[in-house]
Amino acid sequence: MGGLRFAILTSGVVRPLEQSRVAVRTREIYRSANGDRWLLAQDPNTGRVFVRHEPNLPSGGQVADIEIGAFLIGAGNGPEKQELLHLIGTLL
What we know:
This protein is an alpha+beta fold. 18% of the residues lie in helices and 32% in strands. A hairpin with a 5-residue loop joins strand 3 (25-31) and strand 4.
């Protein structure tokens, strides 16, 4: 995937992601009918865990990395949030 990527910080500030030579590890948590994907992701360099939203290609949207806390407290209770909560619940 090319293009500029952004990170959404817990403060709501959006900033460009730094380019990393190490691939981020991901696990898909939800794929919508229109092709948007939400992934649980981890940066192996820092151990940081976050949600990555990859919009469908026709939308022209940008990939966004969202801190888990910001994702969970964000507006709405969509299926992507429900799937992340389900995944967390399987850890118990």
